[in-house]
């Protein structure tokens, strides 16, 4: 007897079935879409037209292309900012949902727009927002005292709506250490805290046996002096700045560290020495001065380190050879990245030969900012000769600060010289390895 085959529902039947679902389920489905996709759903039917205003997903107001055009003087800041403000206000006026997953504003704003931005923050908090990000990074000019100040008065007393907050990201915004500590005390679900370029943070105490905090990065905060950390769930810790007194008292789950600034080894790596063997990823910002000899302590074995990245600023006459012991201290290293920003003047010097140190696990190398001079050639040759099972090396001969911007390929002549030097490295490739010059 032949088995009967049920016909598959048509697109129209499927659409009708979906429309019969309860409104709360349909609204939940909308939360998995972008705001633009949710708005477009209004064309499906009269019912969908009235559902999208209850969108509760991610409100991501970001316009990087316009910001690049403003920086390149192709568009006017005042005109584009007014367009941006109208767009945000129009959307917020239409939304009627009771909660929100994410609220993200990325545009150049300063204290002149405080009332407006305070209103946006109030809106997000009133919706029980889970992830809040304000990125007011300037196009070029330094904002200084004109930076927007996060509305401290809103949170000086307990606000029940912030208890839903899981992630807080603030860039180029005045915020104090006291307010950040208040958030940590009053946001029991907070797992991610990222603050960059704030001038108000001086001291910060991250302390609590019940903290859920997994990700803590404080970057380029010029007045920052000291930090204490007792965070049982912390997995990623970033600290980039000047001389910062660092005390990591308890972080048993720490896996990822990003450290940089004035003598990062002395002021940050050494206080983290108890946790170095458990790290899986380490990013180090280093400035190599022609006036200060680079000295690293003898590294204990970085037993679990799989990914090492250096972000180096150095003059052409300097050498990265002094950093090699860090590579050799990681026997299971699989991926190595270098971002090299070099300073003039260019000086000729002979290549220094470095004794190879066989590494059986390093498979992936990327060098951004390759200039094809002794400072990067001698390190690259060392890596090619030591990584006996290397699979791929990627060389990007462009300024790391410009990669991904409209000005990435401006220095054509210098890039061409670097590409020529990179091609000469093919003779050093281990068998089976691939060299990509991007």
Automatic annotation (TrEMBL):
<feature type="domain" description="At1g61320/AtMIF1 LRR">
    <location>
        <begin position="157"/>
        <end position="394"/>
    </location>
</feature>
<dbReference type="InterPro" id="IPR053781">
    <property type="entry name" value="F-box_AtFBL13-like"/>
</dbReference>
<dbReference type="InterPro" id="IPR053772">
    <property type="entry name" value="At1g61320/At1g61330-like"/>
</dbReference>
<dbReference type="InterPro" id="IPR032675">
    <property type="entry name" value="LRR_dom_sf"/>
</dbReference>
<dbReference type="InterPro" id="IPR055357">
    <property type="entry name" value="LRR_At1g61320_AtMIF1"/>
</dbReference>
<protein>
    <recommendedName>
        <fullName>At1g61320/AtMIF1 LRR domain-containing protein</fullName>
    </recommendedName>
</protein>
<dbReference type="InterPro" id="IPR036047">
    <property type="entry name" value="F-box-like_dom_sf"/>
</dbReference>
<dbReference type="Pfam" id="PF23622">
    <property type="entry name" value="LRR_At1g61320_AtMIF1"/>
</dbReference>
């Amino acid at each position: 007897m032949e088995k009967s085959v049920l016909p598959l529902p048509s697109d129209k039947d499927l659409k009708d079935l979906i429309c019969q679902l309860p409104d709360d389920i349909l609204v939940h489905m909308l939360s998995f879409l972008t705001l633009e996709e949710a708005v477009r759903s209004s064309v499906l039917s009269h019912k969908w037209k009235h559902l999208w205003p209850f969108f509760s997903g991610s409100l991501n107001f970001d316009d990087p292309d316009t910001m690049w055009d403003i920086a390149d003087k192709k568009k006017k800041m005042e005109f584009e900012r007014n367009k941006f403000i109208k767009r945000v206000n129009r959307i917020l006026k239409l939304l009627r949902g009771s909660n929100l997953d994410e609220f993200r504003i990325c545009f150049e704003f300063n204290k002149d727009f405080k009332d407006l931005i305070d209103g946006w923050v109030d809106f997000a908090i009133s919706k029980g927002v889970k992830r809040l990000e304000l990125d007011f990074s300037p196009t070029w000019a330094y904002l200084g005292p004109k930076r927007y100040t996060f509305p401290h008065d809103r949170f000086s007393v307990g606000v029940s709506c912030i208890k839903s907050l899981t992630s807080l990201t603030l860039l180029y915004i005045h915020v104090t250490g006291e307010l950040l500590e208040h958030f940590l005390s009053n946001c029991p679900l907070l797992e991610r805290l990222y603050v960059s370029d704030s001038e108000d943070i001086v001291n910060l105490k991250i302390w609590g046996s019940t903290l859920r905090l997994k990700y803590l990065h404080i970057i380029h905060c010029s007045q920052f002096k000291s930090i204490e950390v007792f965070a049982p769930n912390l997995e990623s810790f970033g600290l980039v700045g000047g001389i910062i007194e660092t005390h990591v008292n308890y972080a048993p789950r720490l896996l990822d560290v990003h450290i940089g600034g004035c003598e990062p080894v002395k002021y940050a790596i050494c206080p983290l020495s108890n946790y170095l063997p458990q790290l899986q990823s380490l990013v180090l910002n280093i400035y190599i001065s022609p006036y200060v000899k680079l000295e690293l302590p003898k590294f204990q074995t970085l037993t679990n380190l799989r990914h090492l990245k250096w972000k180096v600023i150095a003059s052409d006459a300097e050498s990265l050879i002094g950093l090699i012991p860090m590579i050799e201290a990681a026997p299971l290293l699989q991926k190595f990245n270098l971002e090299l920003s070099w300073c003039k003047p260019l000086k000729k010097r002979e290549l220094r030969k470095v004794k190879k140190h066989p590494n059986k696990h390093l498979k992936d190398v990327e060098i951004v900012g390759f200039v094809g001079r002794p400072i990067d050639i001698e390190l690259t040759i060392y890596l090619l000769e030591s990584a006996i099972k290397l699979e791929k090396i990627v060389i990007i001969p462009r300024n790391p600060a410009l990669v991904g911007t409209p000005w990435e390929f401006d220095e054509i002549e210098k890039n061409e010289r670097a590409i020529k030097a990179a091609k000469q490295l093919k003779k050093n490739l281990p068998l089976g390895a691939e060299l990509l010059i991007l």
